[in-house]
Design brief:
Helix content: 10-25%
Strand order of the largest sheet: 14-15-16-13-9-12-11-10-17
CATH superfamily of the largest domain: 2,3-Dihydroxybiphenyl 1,2-Dioxygenase, domain 1
Number of domains: 2
Distance between the termini: 16 Å
Shape: globular
Strand content: 35-45%
Number of strands: 17
């Protein structure tokens, strides 16, 4: 299991919920998405992040950036509105690595005079969307997009946790896929920055049945690892005290072979560096960047140590 102590390094990119809330509207517009796993499998891993989507006002610019940065290619389709969605048809691009889907990008134009803050949304696996929605509400979450069917993809809903971090749940109609080591260019980790890591970790433990581990942190802040199936799935980290206007949010990390080189390339492509490359507790490097439209994401190399901590 891997553990990542980003702690104080995350405060520079932790922004408002506006962009993430827009993702709920965009995801709801895709009426018949392709299956998550093809051919379908029988594996199910509750609490595993099994999909990511980016909402952005400039689909083609995002494709150019991520294509050059990670070697992704794209298959574009029209995303028709759902029955209760009056928004216009949007373009929806599936990102592929070696012909396998790794993410999606949705173009959303802002209403006149309103900014769009691009953001990535993380989809966590569940077996039963309606039961998970009920459990989340019982423990203080809010529903942003009610459960709905997305064709061959399955059923999804979009929620905000008790501290306001936005995430999605997905009951995949084709299974969740195997727990293989991600290749460079694939997502490898997910971290959450919140006001109270212990309380939010307890919420996700109740929702997904995680094992929860406290991991020592050099800055003394809470750093909690969430695990299932004997694998670490994500971390929850205390927000720094000097971030009174920051809002809780999830961020996904893409595996790369050389964090510094990818950071340099991101700069050349018009991206910004929010957290400079620095050592992670596992001995590798991590960094946080923003794409040219402003969506933050993490970069990580990884050499496979196990988490050290005590279970709660």
């Amino acid at each position: 299991m891997i553990a990542h102590g980003l702690g104080r390094h995350l405060r520079s990119w932790c922004a408002g919920l506006g962009g993430a809330l827009l993702i709920g509207q965009a995801s709801a517009a895709a009426a018949d998405l392709p299956p998550l796993v093809d051919p379908a499998g029988a594996e199910h891993h509750s609490g595993k992040v099994i999909w990511r989507e980016l909402v952005t006002p400039d689909l083609h610019a995002a494709q150019d950036f991520y294509g050059q940065l990670f070697g992704w290619t794209f298959r574009t389709q029209q995303a028709a509105p759902a029955n209760d969605d009056k928004s216009p048809v949007r373009e929806y691009a599936i990102a592929l690595l070696d012909d396998q889907p790794v993410a999606a990008i949705v173009r959303r134009r802002a209403p006149s005079g309103e900014p769009v803050q691009p953001a990535w949304l993380n989809f966590f696996a569940v077996r039963d969307i309606d039961a998970a929605r009920h459990e989340a509400l019982e423990h203080g979450a809010k529903v942003l997009v009610e459960p709905r069917s997305m064709g061959r993809r399955g059923r999804l809903a979009i929620l905000a946790d008790p501290q306001g971090a936005v995430f999605a749940i997905l009951a995949s109609a084709s299974g969740d896929g195997p727990d293989d080591l991600p290749s460079p260019g694939e997502w490898i980790w997910t971290s959450l920055l919140v006001r109270d890591a212990d309380k939010d970790a307890a919420f996700y433990q109740d929702l997904f049945g995680y094992e929860v581990f406290d991991v020592p942190s050099p800055d003394g802040r809470d750093h909690v690892v969430l695990a299932s199936d004997n694998l670490a799935r994500a971390s929850v980290n205390d927000m720094p005290d000097d971030a009174p206007r920051r809002h809780p949010r999830w961020i996904g990390f893409v595996r790369v072979l050389d964090v510094a080189a990818v950071v340099s390339h991101a700069r050349e492509l018009g991206g910004r560096v929010l957290v400079e490359p620095h050592p992670d507790r596992h001995g590798g490097q991590v960094a946080v960047i923003a794409d040219p439209q402003g969506a933050p994401l993490g970069l990580m190399d990884w050499n496979g140590p196990t988490v050290q901590g005590s279970a709660q």
